[in-house]
Amino acid sequence: MSERRMVAVPERFVANDLFINRPLRSIILGRVALQIGFIASAMLLATALAQADTITLNFDATPLGPGVEIDATPYLSTFGITLSAVTPSALVLIIGQGLPGIVTAHSAPNYFNEFNGNNPETMTLNFPTPLSGISFFRDGMTSDSKPQWSAEALNAQGTVLSMVGEPLTATQAPIPAQQFTLTGANITALRIDSDNHDFTDLSGVPIDDLTLVTQTATTPEPQTVFLLPASLLVLQLLRRRAKRRVSCGGDL
Hints:
By secondary structure, this protein is α+β, with helices and mostly antiparallel strands. The protein has two domains: 11-49 and 221-248; 58-217, Sandwich (Jelly Rolls). It has helices spanning 18-49, 73-77, 222-248, and strands spanning 50-57, 69-71, 82-84, 91-96, 103-104, 110-115, 121-138, 140-141, 148-154, 160-166, 178-195, 207-217. The strands form three sheets. Strands 1, 3, 7, 9, 10, 11 and 12 form a seven-stranded antiparallel sheet that branches. Strands 2-4-6 form a three-stranded antiparallel sheet. Helix 1 (18-49) packs antiparallel against helix 3 (222-248).
């Protein structure tokens, strides 16, 4: 009669089946982590390759008293902006808030304006690099009317990409400031037309806090370039380690 020998079962073979399930879970989790890591790294790299630069012109470099006017051309040129198609005899100005029309600058004390008496007027601002967006505030007025006006975002071919504006308004109630936004691909110019119909004190729309958004391709920083391949390498090594655990029959 043969003897039966009792063999001690290793702890990893007991009914909790850790030996079977834990390595399999490691493989599954490793694959999920690999996919998540790839997506996250790719998103970070894409973010580094395209960044939006924002510039705001508040026209306050030289604080002015009420109604004091200076030529806006030197200030615009510091941002690489040039003027074209300006109505003959019209003046493109930076003006201290208070007069005329009792304008309240959105960011005190100055605002941007074109003046041509009681005649229709136009001007075009040309930007040094293409933009993806433009926003500005039409300033508020304490008690007055405002001219009819429109602003058009143009591309290099002169095509209108976006347009905003307001009709002639006559009121004795305060007119609050309002923000307007234009968007489009490769905006190179902003054309502003105004007409007070020989009625309002202001001949042109008062503007402040002109914000320019440029979509620029940038060279990613070295650590960002290294991030994607390095993270994928680490995750791949973890995946291989999980496979070895299964083939070797336990933890390594």
